[in-house]
């Protein structure tokens, strides 16, 4: 039987928070629906604001059956349930399994770390306020840029790249915008950047050569082509004239030290696709028309919820950002952007020979995302926090459990082997978690807690052992380490006045989050 704390409310999430959850502020007028419905056929899913939830997935029975069929084969689903359960019961089994994993991870994180870790979106909002004021642009435009630049980027790079777009477009002055033409140095960068020299980009090369950003505004071409041209211009200008370094971003939105490579050098931020940069450019153009942001953010739930979480962290809609790490946390497996389960969550191509989790233009549901969103909301309900806070805390925990250096094919196979034993009924879910944590070496502290920037997802200090994860609520008392310091950097500086000295001192602890000895990331 599921534990009472997890199964106290298994009804589908149907909109605003249920009683017992934290209070919410009045909703921001520029919030967007969590689902983008493109069909003209109306469908009543009995949920508010097009929430991504189990009810929405069930509103299209064929899609629900397809997605439940996919998760039946996951090692996280017990074989006897997979073979005999109805779609409804299988959905509950899967969501309950994910909820238990999330609660275990949440409870394994010491209170001092949880208190800061849950503030990621409050910090994102602080960054939004800072940039909005500095560049005299609406908050929804800033949030749109941050969301547009998020795919396949960790938060540290996300912040740096978003700022580069905004600063180039809005912070260099009128003379720069209208008079600084595509330079010979930028031409050399273009020739040296293989990814921008694809044959299909030839027309864009012709558009940007000899032009300023203002010239591109005046070009007699469609707006989406202008945005792509500006995207290439911005990227080439940044690569030519600006350092690539970027900094750790603390939960409160302040900056820590530079992110480092394994060798100790400053790591460099890598640009995403021109399409993503172009969406960021277009988000800046929505200053006087926020309604355009809904279509601009696209159909993928992750970007849409991420935008809402940044814009209004205390929304009543229960927006929750399910990215690669969020899926990994729910399944307690070292997943990457190339993992099949992650592709299923996003509704993306899962690879040759793999089933794909599709979407519906009628309901706006894309991928298996609603199942994870349901689990995060239930886990948040059980701990009386917002869903985005549950996601933030467990996001840090799973990154510490499975740092990038751990995500080898062998380690992934070993962890999947543990869950295969669970699937076959050989071990319980608690026992599986214990074995997973033991194999992974425990949960490493986050960089902003450990006080080192040598590796963005690596260990600096000790780790929580397996028992600290599967015994919900068990933790240890501790001695001392420091967190990453805030400071100035390439991108921006958000004042740290909001970080209380008491929290600073409270973070001077280790054994709540360690075994008291150094451990390598792998």
Characterization of the model:
The protein is an all-alpha fold and 522 residues long. The protein has helices at residues 4-7, 54-58, 61-71, 79-84, 87-108, 111-117, 120-135, 139-148, 155-170, 174-179, 184-192, 202-208, 213-218, 223-241, 274-284, 292-296, 301-311, 324-331, 340-346, 369-383, 387-401, 409-423, 429-440, 447-450, 467-470, 501-506, and strands spanning 247-249, 255-258. A two-stranded antiparallel sheet has the order 1-2. Helix 8 packs antiparallel against helix 15 and helix 18 crosses helix 21. The longest helix has 22 residues, at 87-108. The chain is globular, with a radius of gyration of 23 Å. The two termini are 35 Å apart. The model is unreliable at 1-20, 45-49 and 451-522 (pLDDT under 50).
For the largest beta-sheet, the strand count, sense and barrel status come to: 2 strands, antiparallel
What overall form do the CA principal axes indicate?
Answer: globular
Report the portion of residues in β strands: under 5%
Oligomeric state of the chains in view:
single chain
Count of alpha/pi helices: 26
- Write the H/E string, N to C: HHHHHHHHHHHHHHEEHHHHHHHHHHHH
**Category from helices, strands and their pairing:** mainly alpha
**Helix proportion range:** 40-55%
Mean pLDDT value: 82
Number of extended strands: 2
Task: Show unreliable segments.
Answer: 1-20, 45-49, 451-522
The largest sheet has its strands arranged as: 1-2
Q: How large, in whole angstroms, is the Cα Rg?
A: 23 Å
First-residue to last-residue Cα separation = 35 Å
